[in-house]
Write a structure and sequence with these properties.
The chain has 662 residues and is of the alpha/beta class. It has three domains: 175 residues, 3-Layer(aba) Sandwich (Rossmann fold), CATH 3.40.50; 152 residues, Rossmann fold; 231 residues, Alpha-Beta Complex (Spore Coat Polysaccharide Biosynthesis Protein SpsA, Chain A). Helix content is 37%, strand content 18%. Strands 15, 16, 17, 18, 19, 20, 22, 24 and 25 form a nine-stranded mixed β-sheet that branches. The protein has an eight-stranded mixed β-sheet with strand order 3-4-2-1-5-6-7-8, with helices on both faces. It has a six-stranded parallel β-sheet with strand order 11-10-9-12-13-14, sandwiched between helices. Helix 7 links the parallel strand 10 and strand 11. Helix 14 runs parallel beside helix 15, helix 18 runs parallel beside helix 23 and helix 23 runs antiparallel to helix 24. The longest helix has 21 residues. The N terminus is likely disordered.
Length: 662
């Protein structure tokens, strides 16, 4: 299977990576891939979730703290305060952990990140964290790791749930690829890798020769302790050295390291591992032969070959593509014989060449292609997205206006939010070149746009309301304005009412203090004094950066849109464009009005009557202020709304403000 993603990406998204371990100097597969992707995409942000603090560690747990570990990469340790073995408490743990991760993401300005995990446990987190694409990195057969039937079945269910939910499953080995295929997942075979195989200066070990070495985690589920002990007894003058985290059971540790020629070298940073491997005469892969170990693609194998060392392995069948470079031993006698045969051989260059193309850069490029990232995904100048809900006549006028645009290569995508007035049929019959996404239910403006974004092929995306009509040449003028301002993520036209008068489209971000000033009518005298700016007095007749533009007609740079993850779908109608512009500006982008482009906007055509429209509007403002303004922002803004509506006798607005459903 494998191949390209269903929908292409304009840029690599931000990522939430839920790990199975802490971020440390050992640098395992997911760390190495994250670091490589972060170097290749410096505007993407990565949050790595370490193992959560558990109930037994609560006394020493620290408050949520972001720890930078590399350029544009941060770590965080969430919390699971209750025992997971109690089912109801496990669900509560999921919600607590997800909320803490969401808070950490907000601190970094990350919204709707792609979700990447190796851990089957993370299947229960996905529904609690707002995410985009889901990538399941299947590195081990975790079900086979379990010996108790009940636990094995539970892990199998989690793997199946995660594979089903994932947009892409990365299979680390061929057996794991088959597991994912049986689950019906879209699979990309992505084996392990290594830094470019260049010789390093051997580390001084101070051990008698020859040295047979192992680099990796020491764990009873993998390491055949009896085999190693027997081999060490057969050759008491040889040295057997072990490098990496020691997770052996006490009995196994005592059995292995009681021998005088078996040495533990401790844990070394990943950057130093190559020099230790160069100091070994032979490298070992002495895994137990089990269902679990047969599923592996040992990272250490690539490291061994990149160091040019001979490799003796047990018959697990790992990495069949590299089998010709491995010496297989099933017993201690065979292990010793194979090691003796390989001492002093001249195959180092051949072994390095075998993994020369298996670099993390190559794996990152393969992952990008599987996600649909690349220049080939941009096939037109502009993707026009129109979301419609029971606006058939206006929609026809909007689409006819697009036919009058010249000098721009564009596509049209219409998302119909389960209209009952024949809007979808109109598109099929009169505008067959448009791509129609006819939904079975009204998912809201933000979610409908996000669905369309995944289909867009343009370098820019034009959000166009179904009640907004472009003047001839407006699309070309918007595109020219965006190209003049390379840091402009969003550009909008001068909006007009149907009678040709100016419709205010540029606004400051809602702030409680500003709303109070406007409520008591102090904004005009303060504007005349130059204390604040009142955009009501501005004729929208000069090109300039503003806080935000209303989303009736908004040209967005697709790269920037992808950078912030599209719209926040918790905004149903109104407020979503202010939130989008706020997040874009936090990432260093601009929002610009281009008065050389003009469009006519009816306004409110799909939001019901005036009371319902007001309720939607203030509900969006409430969501915006709670998200961006802090704890007291919305109560203060609500007070301003009541004061202002009372002073002006607008009691309908006051009733909406007091509505408990708001």
């Amino acid at each position: 299977m494998g191949g390209r993603a269903e929908h292409a990406l304009a840029r690599l998204p931000d990522w939430l990576v839920v790990g199975q371990e802490d971020w440390d100097d050992v640098e395992r597969r997911n760390q190495l891939l994250v670091l490589t992707l972060a170097r290749r995409h410096p505007r993407s942000r990565f949050l790595f979730a370490e193992l959560p603090s558990r109930s037994r560690s609560l006394p020493s747990a620290r408050p949520l703290r972001l720890r930078p570990v590399a350029e544009n990469v941060w770590c965080v340790r969430p919390l699971r305060p209750f025992p997971d073995r109690i089912h109801l408490l496990g669900g509560l743990n999921d919600r607590i952990e997800a909320r803490l991760l969401s808070r950490a993401l907000r601190k970094l300005g990350i919204e709707r990140p792609a979700f990447w995990t190796q851990d089957p446990r993370a299947a229960s987190l996905i529904g609690h964290v707002s995410t985009g694409r889901v990538v399941f990195d299947l590195t081990d057969d975790w079900a086979a790791f379990e010996h108790k039937p009940q636990r094995r079945r539970a892990v199998e269910r989690r793997i199946a749930a995660l594979a089903t939910r994932a947009d892409l499953v990365l299979a680390c080995s061929r057996p794991l690829e088959q597991v994912a295929q049986r689950l019906g997942a879209r699979v990309e075979y992505l084996p392990n890798a290594v830094e470019p195989p260049e010789p390093a200066t051997p580390a001084p070990l101070g051990l008698s020769r020859p040295v047979l070495g192992y680099a990796g985690t020491l764990h009873d589920s993998r390491l055949d302790v009896e085999l190693i002990r027997s081999a060490a007894l057969l050759r008491p003058n040889w040295s057997f050295a072990f490098l990496g985290p020691d997770l052996l059971e006490p009995a196994s540790r005592a059995l292995l390291f009681a021998l005088p020629n078996v040495h533990y070298l401790g844990v070394r940073p990943h950057a130093e591992v190559r020099s230790y491997l160069e100091a070994f005469d032979v490298c070992l892969l002495p895994h137990r032969v089990t269902e679990f170990t047969r599923s592996l693609d040992p990272l250490k194998l690539y490291e061994y070959l990149a160091a040019g060392r001979p490799v003796v392995t047990t018959p697990t069948g790992n990495a069949p593509d590299l089998a010709e470079h491995l010496l297989v031993a099933a017993t201690a006698d065979e292990l010793v014989a194979q090691a003796e045969r390989s001492l002093g051989d001249d195959g180092a260059a051949t072994r390095r060449a075998a993994v020369a193309g298996a670099t993390w850069e190559a794996r990152a490029a393969q992952l990008e292609a599987a996600l649909g990232l690349g220049e080939g995904s941009v096939e037109t100048d502009v993707s026009v997205v129109v979301v419609s809900y029971n606006t058939r006549a206006l929609l026809a006028r909007t689409l006819e206006g697009l036919r009058q645009q010249r000098g721009v290569d564009f596509e049209v995508i219409v998302v119909d939010n389960a209209s009952s007035d024949g809007s979808a049929e109109l598109v099929r019959e009169r505008f067959p070149k448009a791509t129609l996404l006819a939904l079975d239910e009204n998912v809201g403006f933000a979610a409908a746009n996000n669905l369309a974004f995944g289909r867009c092929r343009g370098k820019f995306v034009l959000l166009l309301n179904s009640d907004c009509f472009l003047d001839p040449g407006a699309l070309a003028a918007l595109l020219a304005g965006a190209r003049r301002r390379p840091r402009a993520a969003a550009v909008g036209p001068r909006l007009l009412n149907e009678d040709g008068t100016l419709q205010r489209s540029a606004w400051p971000f809602p702030r409680p203090g500003r709303l109070l000033v406007e409520a008591v009518a102090l904004h005009r005298p303060l504007a005349r004094l130059g204390v604040i700016e009142d955009l009501r007095l501005w004729g929208h007749d000069e090109e300039r950066a503003v806080d935000f533009l209303i989303g009736a007609c908004l040209l967005l740079r697709r790269e920037a849109l992808a950078e912030v993850g599209g719209f926040d779908e918790s905004f149903w109608l109104y407020g979503e464009e202010a939130d989008l512009c706020r997040r874009l500006k936090r990432r260093g982008w601009e929002v610009v009005l281009v008065p050389g482009a003009a469009a006519t906007h009816v306004g409110g055509a799909s939001s019901g009557g005036s009371t319902e429209r007001l309720r939607h509007f203030y509900r969006g403002q409430k969501r915006f202020l709670r998200k961006h303004g802090g704890f007291g922002a919305w109560p203060l803004a609500r007070l301003a709304l009541l004061i202002g509506s009372g002073l002006r006798g607008r009691f309908g607005i006051a009733r909406v403000a007091l509505d408990p459903r708001l």
